[in-house]
Structures
1.
Amino acid sequence: MPDKSKMTAVEIFDILFDKDTVNEVYAGYGNANAAHGYVNGSPAVSVVMDGVMDFATSEKICNALDFAAKNGIPVISVYNSVGAPIEEGAGVFGYYGNVLKKVSEISGVVPQIAVTEGVCTGSLAVIAASADILIATKSAEIYAVTGSDTSLDDSVAIITDDLKSALEMIVSLIEKLPSNNLGKIPEYEADAPEAVPTADSTLEGLAEKDSLISLYDGFGTASKTAFATIGGALVGFISAEKGLLECEDCSKIAKFVNLCDAYSIPIVTVLDTEGLSENACLNAVVKLTAAYTNATTRKITLITGKAYGTALSVFISGNADAVYAFENAVIAPLPPLTAAEFLYHDKLKGAKDLTAKRNEIAAEYEASMSAGNAMKTGLITAVITPKTAYKTIASALEISQGKRPANFFDRKHSI
């Protein structure tokens, strides 16, 4: 008996696609439905799977993914499954393997968005998590190994209340994303931000009205990753303003940078951080550095407050095309109090009030590490104000549309 509480494929297609544009393909076999149509005027393919992964289902999903890649259009996959026909023995691995291979082959070629509201386990969970963006409802159960934690983890980009909300979110995303890795980012009329950036709401002061879509809010609490529009076109926002970056933050940001770079979505990084936590694992930091360094999309950094230590090397240094800073920004190799202790230890000797003297030296060091002084070193493109931040970044993005990255080496990454 079918679960009547679940949406049918027809109902899902009706929400995703514009009226009278749905065309079902590869009909008549397998536990999946596939169709192509238009999402707010943008072409897309959708696959809805609800059942076991048998040979016919595997073949149908692969055909739909192949159709999307050949025509350069995004794929929206809805996955709900309790597994495969295990009575068929080892052959079931081939069914999953074929789909996973196809998903991997077209990764970075056309945007892939996966969504699940129910049980998504084992190899199918790996397939869903291999999409560019995985959206799950609060009721979803996603796990690779039976008996493992079924809570939604760092593979889930967005969590919604129900499937209808997830599909509506996808509609909003599809119309803003480029159709493929060679396509241009769509541009729309958009209203400027309603406020200027503040310490509590920097992104809200840079993103155009009602355009901010957060990803991976469930982990990496010292950072934020989000899509939004500036100048009517999509950008990827990265904010490191909530404390020291932990291992999860590094992994989350690296994953988001790779996603943006795959489809040439510009990256705007906002910094107010003392750098890395002592718990940040080296491997995650290396992956973060590699993601930024290897990304050839446009990269703009805005320093709104502190930028200390390793953050300078990762987010600024040679990894940004333009670096802006607010007048009160402090850009330094070390936090001021740390610098007072290690660089000016001799000045602390004999001080009657050690704490007061340390604070005095730290204040002098902080003043010497101002945004204005950093600009004299060539590290900063310009010192700006919160009121001019949106227009400055919008102008920088517009003028750099023709960026032609030089890549002198034909290589495969080992990181």
2.
Amino acid sequence: MYKGKVKKWGRFYLGVILFPIILTGCTKTLFYIPKSIEAEMESAVDGGFDGMIVYVNQAGKSSFYSAGLNNRKKQIPADPHDLFKIASISKLYIAAATAKLVANKSLSLDQSLSSLIPEVNGKIENADQITLKMMLQHRSGIPEYIFEDSFETGTDESYITTVSLIYDKPADFKPDKKYSYSNTNYLLIAEILDRTLGYSHHDYITNEILIPLGLTNTFNLYSEVDSNDVMSGYFVGSETDLKSIDHTRPGGSMIASAEDVGTFLRALIDGTLLNKEEQAVYSSVYAYEHTGWLNGYTSIARYHSDIDAVVVQFVNTSSREWFWLELERTYNKIVSAIENNQ
């Protein structure tokens, strides 16, 4: 199994971005005079990005852009409709599914982890005090499983087997005392959803979110797609195509086109997806945007209310922490170009 950099740079593995880096990325472009979206993308590719896809939905109109390569070896150009590993953007779909189940009283935000998954009591510190809401908000203090030496990607083991990697580890902090992003939260939530439903949350997401929205280019797992339709992914300084690494753990496993991600995000925001009660639950627990980071794949999906624009950026290149600065800087330039062309 591929490990290496997944371990060393694990906090970025499924989309965790440090606030100072984001802030720096914003201030660097504060007084920048933007070029066109196409020119900004070409500049980013010239600067080291392998390939880029940008999708913009603004005031009822969708626009598609691509630059650079889908595949280095075969010199296949990026296509705006290519499928992409969206990493932690997947968490938006899990949060939406949870909101629906809370709204219909199948779950409660105040239920404790120990009541929902009794076997973790005494194995995960504070399990009797950690609530579903805290896990959704990354305020549980539960340690990150991907930092454990024995963690491997692409396994078929149960979610609980993976969670057991952090059994008997000290909590990062007391429940609800601070925020700290941990993929273990969403691994546990996926297990809770499966137990509540009596079947896979993947099927629930498909039936209750993807099909109603007509998202035919969104998939729960890499194994569900034709690999030829997925962009290759690269780590800076390596020629290895990372596409075949199968990330199966919930909260980072999904594959989608930029258009489908943008359509989902718009529907999540405007009430198309969730009814009034579901929307209230979702708004109380999670944000309406996300980033994603896997080896070879980096993504940003956000809504900009001031210009009524959903903007999705996919880049099939990754590196160490500093690389996110360039990703944010490029994203900010693209948003500036959208604002400038209104």
3.
Amino acid sequence: MKQTALNSVHSMTAAKMIEFQGWQQPAFFSDPTDEYHAVRGSAGLFDAGFLGRIEVTGAGAEALLHSLFTRNVTTMTEGTALYGLLCNDSGFILDTVLLFKLQPEGPGMRFLITTNPVSTDKVLGWLKKNAPKNAVINDLTGAMAQFSLQGPLVDTVLEALTGSHFKKIKQKHLKTITLADTQVIITRTGFTGERGYELFVPAARAVVLWDALLAAGKRFGLLPCGMTSRDILRLEAGYAQYGIDLDETRTPVESGLMQVVDLHKTFIGKDAIVKRASEPTQSKLVGYELYDKGIPKLGGIIFSENREIGSTTSGNHSPNRRKDVGLGYVLTRYSQPGQEIEIEVKDKEIAAKIVELPFYRRK
């Protein structure tokens, strides 16, 4: 398994380690429920080093990304970020990615892409396959570490670390600052539904910054958090996880991601997506809420009046709802909120209903 720059720190803290999409990651450092509540109530710090980080530079960088990305790259200003998709010629999703436009360090523009770990090699290959000679592609996954600082008190934690007033950053914006004597690219993004930041730091300085953030945030309730609480948080926020809820068999149409597809521009996969969007959609990704206890595994069958209508993808207990919830694909005619369904859980059928997403919305 691959290891992040913080692996030795996790081992020393006796974190419970698991495999996630080829990476050894902490499942939890303490009680996962405590970690969850830290993010919802104060702040939590995640090791996001398992995400891929790919740099694209040069005179042809913008044109390359504009031809592949489902969003309009040409309108991006330096210091901004966009969430979108990379699709193949048939309109199927290769990955969900965040694209950052950074300050250039040489001729041409400079971009950073973060990928899901299961897709990093695939995205690298896709970029290189379509790249002109004047676009340079570098895999920075090993050289650059990534943290996710999430929760309502994240600005307070950063102020404590900087020793001065931390200037808040707008959503989907980024800048370079100094934290713990380390140059850090910090961006206002996240995967939890809370206010938060992603921090990019040289791998050699990862341990120093991790320890500094935990020390600065301790008195505010900051906790190191693992993949168990991350999965609950992202599910409550209604975020689909690539490799679980999304893969190369899905398009943006049935996955509910057309809001990050700009059909006013040309990109690989557009024609196929337009065609699919013009036809009746056979299935849709929906959220569901169970009436009784039970967390479905990936691929659990969804029924309506004894008819199989779809299957589950994600499932977990929602502390916010105090119920078990999840995501899954169902036939479109059964996708409306309020639709009564049954879900297969350990050879039993548990009553549930389709509900609007997200399960949790920050006030």
4.
Amino acid sequence: MKESRPSELQRVVAGAIDAAVLVRTRGEEGTFSLREPEPEWWAEVFGTDREFRDRSPFLDDFLDHGAGEFWKTGRDQEGRTVRSLRSGIWEESVPGEDRRRFFEAVAGREEEGGDVDVLLVLPADERWREEQAFVQQAHDQSLARRRLLKELEKKQVLLECIMHDLGNPVATVLLNLQHLDRQVGEEWRESRPAIRRAIAQAERQRQLIRSIAEVFAADLAGSRETIGGHPPDLAAVAAETVAACAPAGAEAGVALCPFFGESLPVVAESLALSRVIENLLSNAIHHSPRGGRVTIAFEREGDFAVCRVEDEGPGIEADMGDRIFQPFVQGNITPGQSGLGLYFCRLTVEMWGGSIAAKNREKGGAAFVFRLPLAEAVRGKEGGAR
């Protein structure tokens, strides 16, 4: 009988994908016929269409169970109606040779003058190598991640121990110096300036230790905060921070002038956000002349909330540029405390998906601007992605 057009098409396709095509008329259980063209590897691995089941226990089991049920009912092993059924990749040894080949079988149903069971056997050596490489890569990445987390835990513990060992003695020295300053009598009044200089240096040392701890803690975190619960309102956190910094501004003769607007819930963590704003305000106060003003203002810019801190000081030196946000970098005109405050700001803001920049104002002074993603915008994008 002359083959129909679909059978000729199937022959071309089978040759193109290097597949062995076996068919049988339903009801003639166990009698498969190999269609042309026969792949070169078929005889080497499986012999003939009469002996392939004896040579391959896996294929024999697939035909009796998974494929057998599919051909009878058109359903897979979970009871779902499907048009074809895959065996998954399995391994075959090449008779007489010390090597392996990998294959995958696909059971299908053909309508051609009556129900016909179709079995495709395809080489899967390349797919197997790709899957093994993928599995190995996933394993390596998982192992590397576990090692990294272990190293981070060790560094976090070491950091906490160092900060504890450094901070406690300094706190004790500062406490005793403050007590001595209160108790010193008139006969020791000449020593009071020296005591107060020591207090100032001890306080400076305590602030330095605090800055180092914050910077390294932020560096170790190294991942963006996720939004959980109620995201902090940038303006509300800033209002509390401005109030806390007001006494330092008053002592330096610098007025803090906040300009609050609408509520701006952002992707951040309240305490760290407060430290970012405090660092920027402290930096602005430090570089402002007596009688100067430091302004802090907020606005919405697309999917971001923007905070701007401006002072009336000497501005940023021309050769500083973005180096101002690097660790231990300080200006020459009015150097800061440790050169870590702005570095902490950059690390923290970028960790939340934001950015920070600095530039000189046209009227004199410096402007520091940081942007944080609005919580509502991030939630909207995450919801859309689902």
